[in-house]
Recover the amino acids of this structure.
């Protein structure tokens, strides 16, 4: 318990909320929350395929001794008991052997691609979720110290992350921000204008650790005029060293993700029935351990989804196997499901958009396979 | 925008305002003593030489990183203490051992009170280029990288600097090289013979970032095989620095911490990276880093970053060509490259948005407001004056804490990443705090004269109702923020 608390206090995180209704616009009622797992989550550690005969021989030092069985072939890492419960209650699903189709194993290109939804790194100034909100006529407002790329592309963007500057809770004069909005241009002008309207409202108070932020985000999304999308960022998945099997760095991070899912569920309340919470990471990790009891950058990983919109309790996978001959470039879990299909299905279901439109306008991919039925019905 | 905003922390005086290119360039070579202030408690502050007792060698830093770990663990193991007692004891240990907190104060003091702001700005650029996030004690060493490695390395070639950074304990620790053991190294073979269940293998984290982030960028078109070969060259470099030394392989524990190579962890044999062959052993890393540093992709990649950080948010083809030519003509001699950057900054016309931290230091340097406490104020229970903010907290709040856990690509050089309501809220609130609480500072009129602001900015400031508002409007104006 002490470990967890100490860990939380040291973590840097950010939350962004977006997609407020335009006045007079009808909008679909679904909500999407994205948990960005930065560093590259080890899908085989989070959701071990215990039925695969090669699992133990390929990565003995990384396999949990006490996994929670899900369906006879796949299990859940013991640090995620809450998610496993959701799965058993058909409120959660897993997609395995999946990834965004990005092959170069660079964090920074990979994170850019997973947020932009454009497979050419650093070529897009907007993000897929921002474009989805825009297409669904729900422009954004973000709550974050910086506006995350994934939400850019919406017409109105605001960000919020509570300050702890001495005198930081003092209500500042909105007139100053308005003056500054007039002399600045573009996004800077808009940011000062948004600040002016914020200074006219009562000071909002939000917590700063990721779990409380997720609960807070869920509560905001549940409000009638609340946002349609939330993005929360969790780092430290780049477990090159001392990854551990039942404890260690990766275990702590998975436990944190478990708590975030549960916090979203609690915060959303009745709105949970209309929501989907989905993880997104830039790539998986090598199947075998490296020299430091960790794993290096890989390819295939797992995606975790929860929420009442899902037809849950399923591991959606076309499992490629862990034998050396089955691995991508003989080192990584192969990818049999394009993770953009998972994201597109969430957008289609929650925002009520047509799959082909989502594929072409949001992911720029004409023949993106449709996964909606496997996940949502 | 004043040129000293692009390449330094703004003008402090009328003399600064009359910026001379040669004087700015001369600052790069200046290795005068560091400065700082002792305390904000006794009225007007005095700028003094930074104390020798707070200037830490790498040996001291490694020693402290070990000690704090040992002492904290022994408190944890002590069954006679309750939770509150343990917390108090640990707080005391932190105060005695966490010398990196003096690095945090020193960074601000030198930027605000020093006579070499141009040099500090370039040091901060390189410190960000070679990012060290907190991991396993690295915050104890990262100050050494700043003051001793980058500070002195800026007088030589890029290749020399890159080599010294790559083998520095902070980098070897942060990017996990200390855990890398080559599969056919003596250590691995012995472990296999004895059938010991220890993990042996390469860790390619540092090799990958050395190529992607520190030198060539992906533009060099290297493969995974190239990265693995580079990782093999890197294997053997470093030990787990914050653990007590037991003696590992052929390394006998001599504390030359910048040159620790353990042959036991490396495999003999030639390596090929991007078609270039390297013989095995300790000398191969120097050759690899030089080879990577001297490639044209490295030149293009880094010259672009320099222009983006110092010249303009939209550097022109002329800017890039000019700086690249200086690099090419001197094979990456940093004084020549930095001079070229400064020359382009002097003629730049397009905006260059300031990093939040650069902005904060510029506010403090141009206004003369004393905000960041002295070295004697660090562990005072209460603030000692109206200002007296803790550097550590300010860095966090403004979103640019060099001592935090973060990713190896460092803080963004792109303006778009720093423009948001929240970032501007922080700037406004800090400007309010400084403007309203610290009355002993230069007048806004004097600041505007030094900065030679345009008519639009003067007009904006004139609309203020009082001095605090004027201070906020000036420091958050497009001209001051670099927008």
């Amino acid at each position: 318990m002490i470990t967890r608390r100490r860990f939380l206090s040291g973590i840097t995180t950010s939350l962004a909320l977006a997609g407020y209704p335009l006045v007079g616009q009808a909008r679909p009622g679904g909500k999407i929350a994205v948990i960005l797992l930065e560093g590259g989550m080890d899908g085989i550690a989070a959701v071990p395929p215990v039925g695969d005969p090669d699992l133990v021989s390929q990565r003995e030092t990384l396999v949990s001794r006490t996994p929670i069985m899900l369906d006879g072939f796949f299990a859940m890492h013991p640090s995620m008991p809450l998610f496993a419960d959701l799965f058993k209650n058909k409120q959660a699903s897993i997609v395995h052997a999946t990834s965004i189709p990005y092959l170069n194993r660079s964090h920074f290109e990979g994170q850019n691609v997973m947020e932009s939804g454009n497979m050419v790194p650093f070529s897009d100034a907007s993000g897929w979720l921002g474009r989805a909100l825009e297409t669904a006529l729900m422009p954004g407002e973000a709550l974050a110290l910086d506006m995350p790329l994934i939400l850019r592309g919406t017409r109105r963007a605001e960000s919020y992350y509570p300050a702890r500057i001495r005198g930081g809770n003092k209500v500042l004069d909105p007139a100053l921000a308005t003056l500054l909005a007039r002399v600045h241009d573009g996004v800077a002008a808009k940011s000062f204008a948004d600040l002016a309207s914020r200074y006219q409202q009562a000071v909002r108070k939000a917590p700063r650790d990721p779990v409380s932020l997720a609960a807070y985000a869920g509560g905001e999304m549940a409000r009638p005029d609340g946002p349609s999308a939330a993005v929360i960022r969790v780092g430290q998945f780049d477990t090159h060293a001392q990854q551990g099997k039942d404890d260690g760095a990766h275990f702590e991070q998975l436990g944190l993700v478990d708590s975030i899912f549960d916090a979203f569920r609690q915060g959303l309340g009745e709105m949970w029935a209309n929501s989907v919470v989905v993880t997104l990471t830039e790539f998986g990790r090598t199947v075998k351990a490296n020299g430091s009891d960790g794993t290096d950058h890989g390819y295939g990983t797992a995606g975790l989804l929860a929420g009442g919109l899902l037809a849950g309790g399923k591991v959606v996978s076309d499992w490629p196997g862990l034998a050396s001959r089955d691995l991508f470039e003989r080192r990584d879990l192969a990818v049999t499901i394009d993770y953009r299909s998972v994201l597109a299905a969430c957008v289609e279901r929650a925002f009520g958009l047509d799959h082909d439109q989502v594929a072409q306008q949001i992911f720029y991919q004409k023949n993106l396979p449709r996964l909606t039925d496997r996940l949502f019905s | 925008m004043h040129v000293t905003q692009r390449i330094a922390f703004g003008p402090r005086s009328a003399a600064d305002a009359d910026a001379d290119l040669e004087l700015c360039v001369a600052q790069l070579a200046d290795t005068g003593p560091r400065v700082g202030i002792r305390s904000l408690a006794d009225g007007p502050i005095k700028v003094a030489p930074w104390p020798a007792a707070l200037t830490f060698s790498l040996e001291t830093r490694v020693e402290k990183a070990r000690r704090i770990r040992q002492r904290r663990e022994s408190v944890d193991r002590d069954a006679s203490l309750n939770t509150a007692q343990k917390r108090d004891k640990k707080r005391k240990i932190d105060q005695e051992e966490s010398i990196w907190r003096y690095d945090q104060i020193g960074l601000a003091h030198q930027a605000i009170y020093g006579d070499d702001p141009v040099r500090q700005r370039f040091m901060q650029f390189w410190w960000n280029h070679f990012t060290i996030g907190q991991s396993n004690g690295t915050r104890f060493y990262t100050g050494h990288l700043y003051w001793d490695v980058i500070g002195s390395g800026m007088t030589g070639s890029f290749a020399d600097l890159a080599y010294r950074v790559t083998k520095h304990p902070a980098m070897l620790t942060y990017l996990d090289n200390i855990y890398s053991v080559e599969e056919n190294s003596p250590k691995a073979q012995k472990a296999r013979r004895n059938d010991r269940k220890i993990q042996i293998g390469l860790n390619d984290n540092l090799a990958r970032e050395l190529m992607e982030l520190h030198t060539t960028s992906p533009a060099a078109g290297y493969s995974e095989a190239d990265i693995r070969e580079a990782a093999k060259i890197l294997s053997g470099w470093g030990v787990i620095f914050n653990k007590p030394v037991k003696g590992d392989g052929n390394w006998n524990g001599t504390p030359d911490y910048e040159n620790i190579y353990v042959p036991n962890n490396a495999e003999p044999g030639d390596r090929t990276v991007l078609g270039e062959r390297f013989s095995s052993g300790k000398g191969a890393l120097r050759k690899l880093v030089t080879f990577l540093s001297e490639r044209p992709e490295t030149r293009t990649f880094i010259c672009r970053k320099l222009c983006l950080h110092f010249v303009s948010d939209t550097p022109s083809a002329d800017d890039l060509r000019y700086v690249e030519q200086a690099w090419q003509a001197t094979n990456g001699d940093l004084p020549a490259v930095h001079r070229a950057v400064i020359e382009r900054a002097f003629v730049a016309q397009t905006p260059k948005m300031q990093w939040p931290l650069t902005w904060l230091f510029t506010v403090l340097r141009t206004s003369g407001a004393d905000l960041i406490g002295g070295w004697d104020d660090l562990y005072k229970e209460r603030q000692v004056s109206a200002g007296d903010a803790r550097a550590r907290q300010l860095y966090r709040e403004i979103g640019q804490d060099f001592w935090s856990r973060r990713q190896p690509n460092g803080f963004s050089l792109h303006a778009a990443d720093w423009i948001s309501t929240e970032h501007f809220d922080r700037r406004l609130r800090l400007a309010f705090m400084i403007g309203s609480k610290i009355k002993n500072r230069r007048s806004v009129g004097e600041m505007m004269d030094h900065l030679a602001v345009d008519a639009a900015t003067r007009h904006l400031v004139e609309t203020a109702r009082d001095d605090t508002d004027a201070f906020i409007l000036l420091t958050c104006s497009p001209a001051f923020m670099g927008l």
Notes: Residues 1-11, 141-145, 155-159 of chain A have pLDDT under 50 and may be disordered. The domain at 2-160+210-376 of chain A is CATH 3.40.720 (Alkaline Phosphatase, subunit A).
